[in-house]
Design goal:
The protein is of the alpha+beta class. It has one domain: Double-stranded beta-helix (4-Layer Sandwich), CATH 3.60.130.10. 24% of the residues lie in helices and 35% in strands. The protein contains 5 helices and 13 strands. The chain has helices at 15-31, 43-53, 116-121, 125-133, 175-186; strands at residues 33-37, 67-72, 80-83, 95-106, 110-115, 135-139, 148-152, 154-157, 160-163, 189-192, 197-202, 206-210, 215-228. Strands 1-11-4-13-2 form a 5-stranded antiparallel β-sheet. Helix 1 crosses helix 2. The chain is globular, with a radius of gyration of 18 Å.
């Protein structure tokens, strides 16, 4: 896993923020993702934590720094395949924070996470070369009319590697990708994601997704998302 360079002085943070950062920075550095139950926090605290790791990317019509994601029986009822966020951007966000604010009606309220970098390294040299060399049309997952990005699945920037991984937005009719996809699925980790849980991951090397196979008739979940470059 990469070595993070953090230039901020922990003493400049409020006590609660510093405690949260002490809990998450070590595991994030060693394993590429971490989840911690930090309880109910305001948006200000969430953003302060996010800025410790880099520059927060404002997105959406209002250029919001925090995106609210709602899942319910009426909205967002489908499974979301494993992916890293904004893989159709020229350079995807480096880190992704997901913070669960509310959840009800789930038998198992999990977020699913998998190490796409480790899975890539398990491939044969020929498969890695094929995945690295091929240029694809990378689609927006929900708005194909918005255009496509001509990009590679395996990219290098400042001596770091980042991946574009979302099986519903790229071609899947070739063996090398299908093998990679299966390795990612087989190494899936189910992370408990109850209200008050903060999940942060290396978005260049990790994929995440949700499955709605274990819910009651009425369910809902609200997540705050922060993208960091």
């Amino acid at each position: 896993m990469q070595t993070m360079t953090l230039n901020k002085d922990m003493s400049t943070f409020e006590a609660t923020e510093a405690d949260i950062l002490n809990d998450i920075t070590g595991p994030l550095e060693t394993q590429g993702y971490t989840a911690a139950n930090i309880g109910d926090i305001p948006s200000k605290t969430l953003l302060s934590i996010a800025y410790f790791f880099g520059e927060v990317i404002p997105i959406g019509r209002g250029n919001d720094h925090i995106t609210e994601i709602r899942t319910s029986a009426e909205v967002g009822t489908r499974d979301v395949p494993l992916h890293n966020d904004k893989s159709y951007w020229r350079i995807p966000p480096r880190y992704l924070i997901l913070y669960c604010r509310q959840a009800s009606g789930f038998e198992n309220n999990h977020m699913h996470v998998s190490d796409i970098h480790s899975a890539f390294l398990q491939l044969t040299e020929a498969q890695r070369t094929e995945l690295s060399d091929r240029v694809l049309d990378i689609h927006h997952p929900s708005n194909r009319s918005s255009g496509t990005l001509k990009g590679k699945l395996v990219n290098h920037l400042n001596e770091e590697v980042f991946y574009r991984f979302r099986s519903d937005t790229i071609e899947r009719d070739w063996e090398a990708f299908n093998t990679w996809d299966n390795l990612v699925i087989n190494n899936l980790v189910e992370v408990p994601f109850n209200p008050g849980t903060l999940l942060i991951m290396d978005n260049w090397k990790f994929a995440h997704g949700r499955r709605l196979t274990a819910v009651e008739n009425s369910y809902s979940r609200m997540i705050d998302r922060v993208l960091i470059m």
